[in-house]
């Protein structure tokens, strides 16, 4: 959809993907399917479900509720798996110390970033932008300061 394409142009990664020829544009969903090497009937059926989500604000197969109606021209990108991550993780205190179930810290064990539990809402819409790097850097500093203090008190 042109509106979303325009939005994407604000992002360096999207512009790079465009320059690399990774973004396909077509006037019909069938043409887009051929360009991407996808079964046209399946892509058309997927679009139908998505459009119903947009029209009736129903959840689609991926749990999305905030679908926007799509119209030609259609843009598509082949996406491959690259990232494994979790929004859950180990419970830590303010210093990044890993906590046991009862709430007492495990001696000399710190966690932050992707392995520590952070802030996240439920479902696909629950991702908080910036939360990954913030907890990696923030807890890195807090844990480092605490570990240094603990060592100096030995
Ligand atoms: C494409 C992409 C975009 C992102 N955009 C954002 C964003 O806009 N904002 C945001 O906040 N977050 C973003 N994130 C998430 C963010 O990058 C991560 O949450 C953050 O990097 C987690 O930091 P970390 O130090 O916990 O883990 P990592 O950065 O994954 O560091 C872990 C390190 O451990 C190393 N390692 C793994 N196993 C071993 C081993 N056995 N021995 C030694 N070393 C090992 C790895 O090589 C890696 O260097 C993005 C992630 C990706 C992939």
Features:
binds flavin-adenine dinucleotide; 5 helices; Flavocytochrome C3, Chain A, domain 1; elongated; alpha+beta; single chain; two-stranded antiparallel sheet; 154 residues
Summarize the structure in words.
The protein is of the alpha+beta class and 154 residues long. It has two domains: 2-77, Alpha-Beta Complex (Flavocytochrome C3, Chain A, domain 1), CATH 3.90.700.10; 97-152, no CATH class. It is built from five helices and four strands; from the N terminus they run H-H-E-H-H-E-E-E-H. The chain has helices at 2-8, 12-19, 29-36, 40-56, 131-152, and strands at residues 23-26, 74-77, 97-99, 105-110. The strands form two sheets. Strands 1-2 form a two-stranded antiparallel ribbon. Strands 3-4 form a two-stranded antiparallel ribbon. The longest helix has 22 residues, at 131-152. The model has no long low-confidence stretch (mean pLDDT 88).
């Amino acid at each position: 959809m042109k509106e979303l394409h325009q939005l994407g142009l604000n992002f360096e990664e999207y512009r790079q993907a465009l320059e690399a020829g990774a973004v396909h544009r077509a006037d019909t969903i069938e043409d887009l399917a051929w360009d991407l090497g996808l079964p046209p009937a399946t892509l058309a059926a997927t679009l139908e479900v998505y459009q119903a989500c947009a029209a009736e604000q129903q959840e689609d197969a991926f749990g999305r509720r905030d679908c926007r109606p799509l119209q030609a021209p259609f843009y598509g990108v082949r996406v491959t798996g690259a990232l494994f991550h979790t929004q859950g993780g180990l419970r830590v205190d303010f210093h990044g110390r890993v906590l046991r179930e009862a709430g007492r810290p495990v001696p000399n064990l710190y966690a932050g970033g992707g392995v520590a539990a952070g802030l996240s809402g439920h479902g696909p819409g629950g991702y908080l932008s910036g939360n990954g790097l913030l907890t990696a850097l923030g807890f890195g500093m807090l844990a480092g300061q605490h570990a240094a203090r603990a060592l100096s008190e030995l």
